[in-house]
Amino acid sequence: xxxxxxxxxxxxxxxxxxxxxxxxxxxxxxxxxxxxxxxxxxxxxxxxxxxxxxxxxxxxxxxxxxxxxxxxxxxxxxxxxxxxxxxxxxxxxxxxxxxxxxxxxxxxxxxxxxxxxxxxxxxxxxxxxxxxxxxxxxxxxxxxxxxxxxxxxxxxxxxxxxxxxxxxxxxxxxxxxxxxxxxxxxxxxxxxxxxxxxxxxxxxxxxxxxxxxxxxxxxxxxxxxxxxxxxxxxxxxxxxxxxxxxxxxxxxxxxxxxxxxxxxxxxxxxxxxxxxxxxxxxxxxxxxxxxxxxxxxxxxxxxxxxxxxxxxxxxxxxxxxxxxxxxxxxxxxxxxxxxxxxxxxxxxxxxxxxxxxxxxxxxxxxxxxxxxxxxxxxxxxxxxxxxxxxxxxxxxxxxxxxxxxxxxxxxxxxxxxxxxxxxxxxxxxxxxxxxxxxxxxxxxxxxxxxxxxxxxxxxxxxxxxxxxxxxxxxxxxxxxxxxxxxxxxxxxxxxxxxxxxxxxxxxxxxxxxxxxxxxxxxxxxxxxxxxxxxxxxxxxxxxxxxxxxxxxxxxxxxxxxxxxxxxxxxxxxxxxxxxxxxxxxxxxxxxxxxxxxxxxxxxx
Length: 604
Ligand SMILES: [Zn+2]
Hints:
It is elongated, with a radius of gyration of 42 Å. The protein is an alpha+beta fold. It has 22 helices and 18 strands. Strands 10-9-8-7-6-11 form a six-stranded mixed beta sheet. The protein has a five-stranded mixed beta sheet with strand order 3-2-1-5-4, with no helix packed on it. A five-stranded antiparallel beta sheet has the order 14-15-16-17-18, sandwiched between helices. Residues 64, 66-67, 69, 91, 93, 95 line the site of zinc ion (ZN). Residues 64, 66-67, 69, 91, 93, 95 line the site of zinc ion.
């Protein structure tokens, strides 16, 4: 046999094996029971049976998605003169519906689980459901995304089942077959990366389906969860039911009639692949009711049951029991209603030394007096913010007038302003320090520059009638003047270098009536030739008045200059000529242009 022939046989064998495998999978899929025929009705019922009235502006008619009829007029809600968008109204068919004026359709997505018995296994089907309301109609479309077979433990799973989780389950993911252009399920991979999310569980056939499978323990809780309409990741509940502690916890909550707590526990938390339970505030390993709740007081636990409390209630009761505080029922109900958790309030209560009831009364009063439009939770945030600022400002929170100000809003805003002010001061100080460092750095680089400025001051400073010329004391002043006037003197080091080599000096031209405000920066050569003068953004304000003054100044300083200065100027000009020749020779046009411009500015 040739190599090619051997390869061809291998290919054929693999192809045959794949055809057999697909056939096995199809055989298993064919044994799944049909979906319940009332599934769509059940989905409507389960998801709240919401209906809407859409307003058609052109036809000026309302349509009801419940009765399917249209009406010219529907009843306006009490206290209003017309029906508004999102108002709850009653249709003539008697149904409470929500009015929609700004949209003509509503779409919602839900997830559905169906667990039904099959021959040798429990069949789980997971669907996406798309709910549609439009005009006078509502429709629901379901699309099955995942199938699972929970194998009965006393039987061998069929060929091609590929069971996982210690042989307990096979998972079939929907995929699209591009060759046959049809969609099917396969247990080999999840090519479309389908994720299983929380949804509702169809409430029939569950116990029978789980019977004898590796997830039998889940039968102690799932049927009840389905009946109470809990939205949960039922796949995770099944996987988790392998761990006896989690099932014990659910069953315990169920039998103890902690319905809301059970629902929240199922909806909010999850199971890891090892069957371990994550995220609950309850302790699934507790041996007694007190240990499960982590509350050492049976009566307090009974109170949670009696009011059908959820996790927030458990945490409040736990907290006040530990701290030995009183928590009147009225306060607890209010906290639940306003959705304020222990997490939200604990730090505030501690800082301001308040009991839950005192906190409630305080927030209610602030709402009435200065925060009518804010929600209690938002006022609580303001209060937290205020207390936090008090700490920053080192105010004494033991003083009740500080911890519980009569006018929270005013005091909050005052504290915010105070902090702003302090921040500005700190920022200014920081800038000063930075300036100091910068000055030291410049001195290190140009150690003679400031000495030269000092030496030249008597020769250069001059006061005219309207303007004056001053010589900066430090390089920082030059840098700051440059920054203030947004021009280049001070931004580059070459000015400082020129100063310390006596090639040119920098002077400031200021108006006599405002001598501290940067106005013009002048570069002058040692003999008194003005090299350049730059105002704001290299512009030249009042230049016609400035020019005569500069001439006057130049005449004056030329008188003061000695031979030595004139020689320095000659040398400076010679150096520049040389520099330009050199740059020309090296074809450095960029620097050349800059230098030429310096010369062009040398007017007056
Ligand atoms: Zn109706």
